[in-house]
Amino acid sequence: MDTGVLYCDDNLARLGTLPDESVDLIYLDPPFFSNRVYEVIWGDEAEVRSFEDRWEGGIQHYIGWMRERIDQLRRVLKPTGSLYLHCDPHASHYLKVMLDQVFGGGMFRNEVVWKRTTAHSSAKRYGPVHDLILYYGRSKKVTWNAPRTDYDQEYLDRYYKYDDGDGRLYWRADLTGAGVRHGASGQPWRGLDPSPKNRHWMVAPDELEILDSQGLIYWPSRGTGWPQHKRYREDLKGKAVDDVWTDIDRINPQAAERLGYPTQKPEALLERIILASSNPGDIVLDPFCGCGTTVAVAERLKRQWVGIDISLTAIEIMKRRLLKLHSSPVVVNTPSTVADLKTLKPFEFQNWAINAINGTHSAKRTGDMGIDGYWFFTRDPVQVKQSEHVGRNIIDNFETAIRRAGNDTGYVIAFSFTKGAVDEAARVRQEGLTIHLVKAAEALMLQRRPFGAVATPGPQPNNVEDLPLPPMRKPEDLPSVGELIASDQAATA
């Protein structure tokens, strides 16, 4: 099985090509049933075309759409493999029933509650602050490395407060447990019989002797009370992680890892899952990669990985993210010819073009004066046209947009330009305004340049590493699902 690969594809089709029992860990964070705005995170119509049918028919249609993928995911899991499905309360109960049917109820391991945000007011209900993660094993013999966290200082100070004089603090724990036992743990030890108290020793008397020889038993003075087990603070392995996670915060708006993806999950969340359910060298699969948190963390933790996402824009974001980790991902099924580019939908083509030049996307979706993005390094305006024979009128209008933006240089990316467009670009050059006409074929060549090369005319430095990413868009700047579908239909009419 090939790893270190990003597939730009419908995950159902791609999963069908993966071999049986080849993956150690699967994490999936599919678009939630509760919020359609997530379909237009990048303004990428591929997401809408893929998911729009999911809403028709309600929750059962959504579950059916998910089940096709879960069937394939179970098939590719190794017998020791695990699956974590991230969801919210709107569909979690339906998803669990479906997962029980696919995996078998006995393979359910946990429903993890992740407190993703702080409390806030909500109309006539308790404030919704959590997501759910449904954890299943392919069999009973899953890979498991028990995760642990640090103890609260208040807890340590309250219980680990005793000192024998050597500076080591310890807690006095019971050496007996409830209930009578008739084996070795129920026998008297040093004249102390726990049975009349309806209790038994936690370990057999011979083990108690070993503990005492190691100085790990506390004996009350003057023969009063029962001995206790000394548990030293320095020997603590950490607190076992339970199924309610309140210690992992959502991504801060100013966090360095934030990429502008509204549903982006924090790396700490994926780190806990990957460390608990895989080992170095194991294969981690994410069939809904989004901005690539799973594959980035897997790369950092020295796991092999495979990522799938239908959005070309998401694939480009992931590629840049992995390149910054000095990984060299193989990207499969992205445009490699002009003919491929012509099959893209308008928003997909626009996003591809801006990414191909390492540009930054315009934060505005309306009222942008015809500026779709900005050229990397120089920050000159860029307009993208998915058209052949772009004419003089387009160049003339863009000239106005460049001047209004306060620039003297701009770029238009299209498949081809008319003689009138070339003449108009030459004319405005005499007026001190430069408009570069960039063919899509040239943008393809720019996209293939080595990582760090800068896409501007003339000699350029080749050591730039911090490539820009699309900025986070406010909900009011996002096109609606209906608008994108209408655009899609108009483009294919």
Characterization of this structure:
This protein has 15 helices and 22 strands. The chain has helices at 11-15, 45-55, 58-76, 92-103, 153-159, 205-213, 267-277, 293-300, 312-324, 338-342, 346-356, 392-404, 419-429, 440-447, 481-492; strands spanning 5-8, 23-28, 77-87, 108-115, 130-137, 148-149, 162-163, 169-174, 176-178, 199-201, 217-218, 228-232, 239-240, 244-245, 283-286, 304-309, 330-332, 360-361, 373-374, 381-384, 409-414, 434-439. Helix 7 crosses helix 8.
Outline the fold blueprint.
Elements: E1 5-8, H1 11-15, E2 23-28, H2 45-55, H3 58-76, E3 77-87, H4 92-103, E4 108-115, E5 130-137, E6 148-149, H5 153-159, E7 162-163, E8 169-174, E9 176-178, E10 199-201, H6 205-213, E11 217-218, E12 228-232, E13 239-240, E14 244-245, H7 267-277, E15 283-286, H8 293-300, E16 304-309, H9 312-324, E17 330-332, H10 338-342, H11 346-356, E18 360-361, E19 373-374, E20 381-384, H12 392-404, E21 409-414, H13 419-429, E22 434-439, H14 440-447, H15 481-492
Parallel strand pairs: 1-16, 1-17, 2-3, 2-15, 4-14, 15-16, 20-21, 21-22
Antiparallel strand pairs: 3-5, 4-5, 6-13, 7-8, 8-12, 9-10, 11-12, 18-19, 19-20
Helix pairs in contact: 2-15, 3-4, 7-8, 12-13
Care to give the gist of this entry?
This protein is α/β, with parallel strands linked by helices. The protein has helices at residues 11-15, 45-55, 58-76, 92-103, 153-159, 205-213, 267-277, 293-300, 312-324, 338-342, 346-356, 392-404, 419-429, 440-447, 481-492, and strands spanning 5-8, 23-28, 77-87, 108-115, 130-137, 148-149, 162-163, 169-174, 176-178, 199-201, 217-218, 228-232, 239-240, 244-245, 283-286, 304-309, 330-332, 360-361, 373-374, 381-384, 409-414, 434-439. Helix 8 (293-300) links the parallel strand 15 (283-286) and strand 16.
